[in-house]
Please model this.
Amino acid sequence: MHPEHAQLLQRIVNFTVQQALIAYSEEIGRLDKDSSTLSKQQILRLLLVRDTVEQNLQEIETAASEERAIALTVLSDLDSHLKKHAQALVKDDLLADCRQSRRPPETDWWWWLEPYCSKSSGHKLDRLDWLWNILSASCLVGSASFLTITAQAFSSVGGFDLLQSLSTISQATGLVLVASGTLTDKGQQLVKRTLEKLNIPTHFHAEATLGAAALLLLGSYGVYNSLPQLSQYYYQKGVTAQRRGNLYAAIEYFKEAIAFDQNYSAPHTHLAEVYQNLEKFEEAQAEYQDGLLKGDIAALNGMGTLILAASAEEEPEELGALSGLLDAEVLFRIGLNQVEPDNLYLQAALHTNLGITLMKQGKAAGDPDVDPKRLFEEAGEHFQSAIEIEQSLDAADLEQTDAGQGLAYCYLADLYEQTEKEEEAAENWRLCEESAYPASLEQYEDILRLGGNAIGLQLETKHILEPDL
Model:
C-alpha cells in the first residue's frame, strides 16, 4: 500500500469502508508489481473487491464531509491505477470471460475496461477495425438504399400484404440493429454483450459486425433483385382475375406488378384493357401510351381499339369518324408488320381489328375515289385470317387466351349481310353464337348492334364481368 494512502485511511472512522479500501489498495499493489501473468481468478478477486468498495461507500453518505473526501480521494487514485492496467486485464478476453459469470450492469465501469485500453496496444487484429467499420457502414448504406426502393414499391399501391410486411419489417429490424451497433456507443455495447454471449472473442467483434452488415446487404439486395419475380407473380394473378371478369381485383394486381418492375410493359397493356372495359378511357390511354413507349405491340393494338371505339361515337359520315378509322388502320397495319410470328393470339386480334376498321370505313365511305367493295373484300380476308389463326391454336392456348376470340365470325356475318350473302351470313352468325367471347363491353355492344338481342343473349360474357359479382 502506498504510504500516503495508509495515512489517509487511518483517518476514516467507518471500519467497513476502511477495510474495503485497504483490500482494494492491496489488490492494486499486486497488480502494480506484476500485471503480465494475470489469471482469471486474480482478476475476479480484484473486481469483486472493487464491488465491495462501491457497496460500502453508501455507508459514509451521512458521515462528515472530510471523511467522505478522504475515502473518495483514495478511491480515485486506486481507480486511476486500475485503468492504467486495463490492457493487461482485457488481454486474451480474460475480462470478457469474467463478465460472463458475473453479469454486471454497465454502470459498474470496472467490469468494462475496454474503452480505457490503448488502441495501439490492442490485439493485432484490432488494427484493421477501422477498415471493417468503414465497410460495415458502406454495407448499411447499400442496405438502406435497397430497403427504401423495395418499401416504396410495396407501398406504392396503398398498402402491404403479409409477404411484403414480413420482408420489410425483417430488413428494417436488421438494419436498425446493425446500424446502432456500428454507429452508436450504446448500440456498440449491446452488440458487444451479444457477441460475448455467443463466445466470439473481442478482437473479432468488428469482423462479426461486418459479417452481419454484409448478410443484411445480401438479404436486401436479394429482395430488391426479386422484384421482377414479384412483378411476374402479381401480373399472372392480374391476368387470372381479368380472364374471370374480376376487373377491380385485376386493376390492383396489375398496379402491383407495375410498381415492382417499371420496365415491364405487359401489365400496362392489360391494365389499359381493364380500364377500357370499365370505360375509363383516359386512364386506358395513359397505360397504352406507356406500353407503346416500352415497345409493346399489344399496346399498339389496344391503342387502335381505343381510337376505333372513339370513332364509333361519331356519325359515320363525319370527318372525325373517318379520321379516327384511318388512324386505327395505321396502328393495326404496323402491328401486323411487327408482331412476333409465334404470338398467334395477338396476330388474330390484329387481323380482326383491322377487318373491323376496314369494314367500318366501307360503310362510311363518301369519297368517290374510295371503293367500299374493295374495303369489304379486304376486311373479309382479315376476318378469315383471324379465324384460321384461332383454329390453329391448341386447346391449352385457347383456354388461357380466349377473351376476344371468335369475334371475327360475328363481323364476317355482318359483312356477308352487307354483300347480300344470306347463307354465309347465317352460318357465321351461328358460329358467332358458339365461339365469340367478347373481351369488353364495347365489343359486346358492337355485336348487339350488328346482330340484335337474339345474338347477344347467346354470347359468353364471363370475361366482361365475373358472374358472382
User: Anything to note?
Assistant: Residues 326-469 form a domain with the Serine Threonine Protein Phosphatase 5, Tetratricopeptide repeat fold (CATH 1.25.40.10). The chain has 23 helices and no strands. The chain has a mean pLDDT of 78.
